Write the structure tokens for this entry.
Amino acid sequence: MKITRLDLTAFGPFTDVSLELGAGAEGVHVLFGPNEAGKSSTLRAIAAWFFGFDHETPDKFLHAYDRLAVGGTLRLASGEELRTRRRKGNKNTLLDAVTGAPIDAEAWSRCFGGVDEALYRSLYAIDHETLVTGAKTLLDAKGETGRLLFGAAVGSPRQLRLVEALSAEADQRFRAHAPKTSIAASLLELERVRKRERDATHSVGQLSACRAELADAERALSRVEAETREASARLGRLTRVERVARALLEREALLDERAREGEVRLLRRDFDALVAGARSRREALGLREEGATRAIDEIRAELAALEVRADLLENAGVIQALERALGAAEKARLDQPRQLKALQTHTARVSELLRELRPDLAIEEVDTLRAVIGRSGLIEELAQRGLVLDDRLAKLDERERKQADERDALARSLGDEGGAPPELDALGRALAAARAEGAIDRAIDDERVALEHDRRRLEAERARLGRFTGSLDALVALRLPELAAIDRFAARFDALADREEGLRREARELERGRADDERRLEALLESGEIPSFAALERARADREARWIELRDWLLGDEGALRAEPLAGRSRRVVEYGEAVARADQLSDALARDAARVEERSALGVRLEGARRRMEALAASAREHADERGELERAWAAEWVEALTPLGAPREMREWREAAMRL
């Protein structure tokens, strides 16, 4: 049997160390190294692999009891190679290194040819300490066994007697109460030195114990440091919470107050500047008020110092009235020449107008015209019609004059012929009646022409009026709304337009503010990733979930725990460590970038508020649109007659006035 490979998986100072011993045929492998290099630990590892771990072992200072494991590969006499692994435990500790199945103890012991653990340790596991102990036992032996072994070594009885003599002499020289020779003193000094060496030297067990204590202390220190970091993170979080708790409470109170207030109009962006200007103006007015107060006090002091007669004080009102009247009279006296000149100019102009318009009316009677001043439109219309009638009258007079001339000429011609016949008078009367009837017909025709001219003019004006395609008679018959109703609708439309403009103006201001906040947030994000409290909470929740999973796995079935591959176990631990690292990094980043985090949070709150306000404005705009639709339907219903197109109230008011004038 030959060991071709030794696996020191977890034993003594070794972790995952393998020694390849398969080279050569049946030669000897020499392992050498300085003290504490692990040579004795390797001998104990081979014994533990072959026969199992001791209940108490000094090789647990680096690895826990339940983690100890060794193994390797044996080449049997038949040439077969057997690869096994031994773990620390109570049963089924020897396993097949490939399949992990337990190996029968009797089959394993047959591989050693009947060599048990005691024989193996006495023949093949002899270390330095064992050699020293055995030699000392032989040297100290006083019985027959020691003598036989020594006699076999030295030879004859004469030599034995010589040895006895030398031993007696040595006892004489080296016993405890021997004279203080140089040898005895040297031996005593040597013993003291060896004692000091023993006191100053620590055994491998003590060193292993110290290393185990050091490892335990380092693990405890790591736990304390982790707890310290977690406590520091908690302290930082609580400190931040304490710092912003009052602000958060105030914010909640303000939000509640805002909710109670309902919709609140946002202040202008330059409100701070307006407030500063108002405060400066208030300070200036305060200074002016102080100056005015001082002036009033001075005047009151002067007034108190004055001595005024009582009768003057009693008639102060009369005196003031007289003073005002005197001032007015003085002003009138100074302005009298200019007023007289203007009066003369106006009197001359009025006289000229009266001579042109009313020569029958004297200037003193001009007040009689005041009654018709307010009827200037009617007067102008009558004047136009008067001019038309005067023209027609002049034409009729001209025709009558021509007819008289023709009649006179006819009468003269009849007189020259010997007088008029008896029926001439009747004929003249009939002719005069015919002429009068023709004049009336011509007058009617003229009136018809004038009427047609007026109708065409009115039709043209109706066409220019627009919105109505009917005739003039239909226009006269239209039922139009009253001006008061039109004015009410105009006021309602104006109020609705003002509200809509206010909404649009506020929406524009909100959009500008939102754009500014988005640009600031984008610049803030471009300057580096900013953690959020939500991300920290998610990281902590993930860390807690990983810990619960790891804890349940550690406290679960030991068999399933052992059977799980090493990669799976490592994955759980690594995932939990990564979750802890992420939570710690986010917490540290929040503490480091508190100002940026608060700015991002404030920008987020403002953007959310702007979004909600925009939604409220959109809802208000829809309500106003519905209100406008209802108002337009009511406005259309006010006009019983259909007009195309129907304009705004102010436009329709002007159209109605024009229609009424037409």
